[in-house]
Automatic annotation (TrEMBL):
Keywords (A to Z) from UniProt: DNA damage, DNA repair, Metal-binding, Nucleus, Transcription, Transcription regulation, Zinc, Zinc-finger
InterPro entries given in the database record: C1-like_sf, Ssl1-like, TFIIH_C1-like_dom, TFIIH_SSL1/p44, VWF_A, vWFA_dom_sf, Znf_C2H2_type, Znf_RING/FYVE/PHD
Residues of the VWFA domain: 105-256
Zinc finger (C4-type) stretch: 335-352
Protein name: General transcription and DNA repair factor IIH
Biased composition regions of type Basic and acidic residues, renumbered to the chain: 35-49
Region (Disordered), start-end ranges: 21-49
NCBIfam families on file: ssl1 (TIGR00622)
GO CC terms in record: transcription factor TFIIH core complex; transcription factor TFIIH holo complex
Subcellular location: Nucleus
Species this chain originates from: Steccherinum ochraceum
Top-level taxon of origin: Eukaryota
Chief location of this protein within or outside the cell: nucleus
GO annotation, biological process: DNA-templated transcription; nucleotide-excision repair; regulation of transcription by RNA polymerase II
Amino acid sequence: MPPRRINDNLDDSDSDISILGDVGEGVSKGKGKGKAIDRDQAAKAKSKAKEQPYAWEASYTRSWDTVQEDEAGSLQGAVEDLIARGRRRRLLAPAGAIRRTIIRHLVLILDLSASMMDRDMRPTRFDLMLQYAREFVTEWFDQNPLGQIGVVGMRSGVGERVGEMSGNPQDVLKVIHERHKLEPAGEPSLQNAVEMARSSMSHLPTHSSREIVVIFGSLTTCDPGNIHDTLDECVKDKIRISVVALAAEMKICRDLCDKTGGQFGVAMNEGHFKDLLFELIPPPAQRAVSRAAGAGATNLAADLMMMGFPTRLPNTSPPSLCVCHSELKSEGFLCPRCSAKVCDVPTDCDICGLMIVSSPHLARSYHHLFPVKPYKAVQSLADTPNPSSNCHGCSVSFNEVALPKAGSALEGMSPLGRYRCPDCHHDFCADCDVFVHDVVHCCPGCGK
Ligand SMILES: [Zn+2]
Ligand SMILES: [Zn+2]
Ligand SMILES: [Zn+2]
Ligand SMILES: [Zn+2]
């Protein structure tokens, strides 16, 4: 297969994501609307095969094959294209103030049925899912340090609790790291798994979100009862379900997402799978409707919740027992209310139940509420009286003259390599632009 076609493939998957951001109508059209549960993949392939290469149609590709050198043998063009994709996606994000949940509870449901051994995604769906799930968990905790994740597996017709709800990324990573314990077998049961996830979140307080993310590779589900009853229960409990399907769209999956306000997507290839999964990382906007129903008149008023900032003990302090593991150690954190010693924050105090967080955790969750505005790509310096000659972030000098750009595909890129903050009007280079928006979450020019 010529490399060009692979590139097309990438571009297509990208445009599909932006469709997802809309009402989700475009995707359902492309995937064949209202597909019955027992239809097989052939039907889907027929509807779309002409214009869209699917993962199982492609010959074996390596990630480095998709990066193309330009005429001069440089990778600049390919790298800039990746940056441009990121910029484009950022511009799609809503700019207005929305209410977001910072204390999130998520149950990750992994399909461990026999269909996960399919090799349409390399090396297998199962291995790819585990790899992406690990990256997802790491990134999720980085952006939602006050959140908790539990893991449930679907295997042999039952839901299996793989990992308890935990706020510690290491605990969660450990359970999905043990590959031999997750070996796929039998049929999945969507209903059993969702019921198990629902029961593990039933005790949660109202200020936290309840979310379920399902990675679903099978085209069947083998349920003990009516799954629509489970769906109604989830709507009542305000659980948001999102599904990333690996094979084809199933009506019940689409219904689960639509009725609970989650996102649904079918992964076309490995890259698209990751994009779909990682779109679920930023905290979802809270729906005003659901709050009005629950809390009556106090719709947009804030709920106050109690949090404590612990005292950190240095590892030179005298050893004492922690309340979480009953282990003798020196370092730890003291609950500000009952002075119990815990090993890790954020957590709920095991003695008095106070939520213990460190201030950096709180600050890191905060940036989602006030995202840095996207920088504007400067097209020409004609209307700038005194353009600065250096990047305001890293002091690298800007090009004086506009570089002729090879591809017209680089929309959202500045020919001068300048990106301007709409508030403080400082110019930044492309690297700083990405760094500010993806890592710092605060404009160095205006401090916002
Ligand atoms: Zn402990
Ligand atoms: Zn306490
Ligand atoms: Zn810079
Ligand atoms: Zn600024």
